[in-house]
Amino acid sequence: MKKKGVCTVGFLVVLLGLLICSGCGSRSAKSLEQELAYRKQGIEKLKEGSYEEAVKLFQKALDQSLAIIGELEIDICYYKAVGQYKAGDGKGALDTCTALINYDKDNMEAYYLRGTLYLVQGETQKARGDYQEALNLEPKDIKLHNRIGESLQNAGEEEAAGMILNQALGIKGTAASDYREKGYSCYLLGQYDSARTYLDKAMNMEDKEAILYMAMLLEAKGETEQANRLYENYGSKEKISTTSLGDEGLDKMKKGDYQEALELFGQALKEEGNDQEQEIRKNEIIALENLHEFQKAKEKMEAYVKDYPQDADAAREYEFLKSR
Q: pTM of the prediction?
């Protein structure tokens, strides 16, 4: 981060009051400890789906910074933008992302998130502009190409999605992860034979995620029995419990891999004796929302609210989904 540790009046203005401070000062160990504690609490609330509480906690974390702006503060601002978006404050989330970009032109995740926000709001050209900026910053990141291509595809922008996914296939790389991600690119493009070729290569190199992708591919082709065997293979290979499946799904969501997260949550919900069903079902809905599959998310939320009527945050989210 080129500007780590820099305190500027300009940044305070641009960040739209995210950091409130009368002047630059030295940070005490206590204020840093409080900032980290609020950040941790905010992330926990984000995972729980308590988005408004999460935003408040991220703001409290930023209030501890004493206008000393570094990677930690940029990270917290990013989380705050995610929380604002999830809480239904699209304008606030856009403002926060714009402030991050104005401060740090090389923040790929901020461009990606703002692009996704624009896409959800139907501002396709702005979304594509931000997605391109993200790709300019990470031109060899095949997974990023897939994330963007899938988002555009889910939004009905098939031509734009196809261009980006085909760009991914042109990126050179011989690592197992390269073959796996190119396999997923082909899967999204509907090129199932090529997808299988790439995924076979990745699986031969013992890439465990390729097993999951292959299972998804076989399922899409209607080869359900083989797909189920691979899902079982994937689970037994890693000795994955319901808890670890849920945790891995959350980790995938934090990285923006919502399709992978959705598959993991689905596996977790198939496990017997699942004592984390409520949390996993809620996270499954969050993944669907991020994939812009609002109808499926609404159906899942309708069932969830019936089973867990005491969850006020979920009830509010259900009202939002009904308006989509």
A: 0.64
Nearest to 54 by CA among 91, 88, 11, 4: 88
Query: Rounded to an integer, what distance in angstroms lies between the CA atom of residue 310 and that of residue 32?
Result: 36
Kindly tell me the sign of the dihedral angle through the C-alpha atoms of 35, 41, 44, 46.
negative
**Tokens found for residue 192:** 């199932």
- pLDDT tens-digit readout, 24-75: 445 567 788 888 889 989 988 888 888 899 999 999 998 887 666 777 888 8
297, 317 Cβ separation under 8 angstroms: no
Residue 4 to residues 1, 70, 210, 228, 298, Cα–Cα distance (Å): 5, 4, 37, 48, 42
DSSP annotation of 156: T
Query: Could you tell me the domains of the chain?
Result: 1-104 (1.25.40.10)
CA gap 72, 88 in Å, rounded:
25
177-214 pLDDT, tens digit per residue, is 999 999 999 999 999 999 999 999 999 998 888 998 99
